[in-house]
Amino acid sequence: MGLSLHDSAVRRKVPFVPGNPLRVGIYTCGPTVYRYAHIGNLRTYLLTDLLVRSLRFLGYGTRSVQNITDVGHMHQERLERGEDKVIAAARAAKKSAREIAEFFTEAFFRDCRRMAFLPADVYPRASEHVPEMISLVRSLEERGVTYGEGGYLYFDVEKAPGYGDLSGASLGGGTPARRTEAGAHRHKKRPEDFVLWMPAEPGREYQWDSPWGRGWPGWHIECAAMAIRHLGPEFDIHVGGADLRFPHHENSRAMAMAATGKRFAALWMHAAHLLVEGKKMSKSAGNEYTLDDLENGPPGGGRGFSPEEFRYYCLILHYASPMNFTWAGQAGAARALSRLRDAYRKLASAGTAGEEAATTLREKFRAALEDDLNLPRALAVVHDAARSGIGGETVRSLAGAWDGILAVGLLPEAGAEGATACGMEGVPGEVGELARERAARRRAGDYAVADVLRKRIRAAGYGIDDTGTGAGRLRKL
Ligand SMILES: [Zn+2]
Hints:
Blueprint: E1 4-7, E2 12-15, E3 24-28, H1 39-57, E4 62-66, H2 76-81, H3 85-92, H4 97-114, H5 130-142, E5 146-147, E6 153-155, E7 194-199, E8 215-217, H6 219-231, E9 234-241, H7 245-260, E10 264-271, E11 274-276, H8 291-296, H9 307-315, E12 323-325, H10 327-350, H11 355-370, H12 375-388, H13 392-406, H14 429-443, H15 447-459, E13 462-465, E14 473-476
Zinc ion binds near residues 29 and 252.
């Protein structure tokens, strides 16, 4: 049958045709590191995890890139205050913007581990890719699609053929196009034009020299430059939250295409938004829940929930369906997961085979994944298997394979490939440490150090096979 995915750009499911099946390029808009990730962010990042796991399950190789936005980005309130949120948070805490960004970057990685997300191959930081951004803006300038004055440089959307194709935004004030800047951006010719470079205001820590004066890059240019740097001008899948479709993704795409003359992302996937008890999450409403909030339990008291239980709750819904998080719903999901684990544990010790029935279930599970990552349907198959009476080794193998996608601990001892997919059994502790350190360096995009660590691992008598994502597998030489 083959994999098909819903492409937001054409608004329908399309057969997935990768550029290179051994290296499917995926770019995900990552966190803006001035605060903790809330559960809505985590649901979006889960889409990338499910995508990567599913592609690997279906035999593809992946190269996954998720950026860290540590420069600040365009928000009305920031522009009115003349500072960005990283800096506002830093000032409040009497810390440097860099310290704050580092702190929340670490918090983000910790959340990823708790959610059992497979690590991306690279986590590029915006602040370390400013030369790439400047050279991208220069290409745009050479192509005559920019204008500006007084240290501000804008992208002229009228000169970008196909602008609006991704989001359906129409030029000239129609929805969802809207004014996103004011004040300083009075030189803009039209509301949809967006800033590529702007001058640094007094007190701004993150600022760089550029052909347009000392300043800092617009948000949209950051992602475009990092995607091109790490995946090339054409790659397979761009992932993000539905709220980023316009203007962020429309703008990233427009400028990348204008600068390179290439297609940029072949396919766009958007995770639907998450409400809490029917309401939009906000700081003022006090419902911007984090994983810690979930572990602490409902505000009125009651049991808390693990990241695994939240992960399971998300799997009940298709990624493109809006999710309404409720404490009752989370409790129900936790009970369902616990019953499912009990059922698998009993079946595993029952010793009854059932290879034929298992084959049918395997096929159904795979077909559900191939149908635009239909996890609710895949989960129904997992429940069917729990009721089927299939037992012993057969159910162990099913649980191991399926938990490679679900990562909710169906059978803890099944050895599912998940966050601990390092294959380090029987390896001296010191070598394991080197491998873990190397994985961390690779995640940070620090390949020179990662290479040195690989040599040290070799010197200790071990080879390491990179599996596309993750820490790789160690083997004795
Ligand atoms: Zn982005």
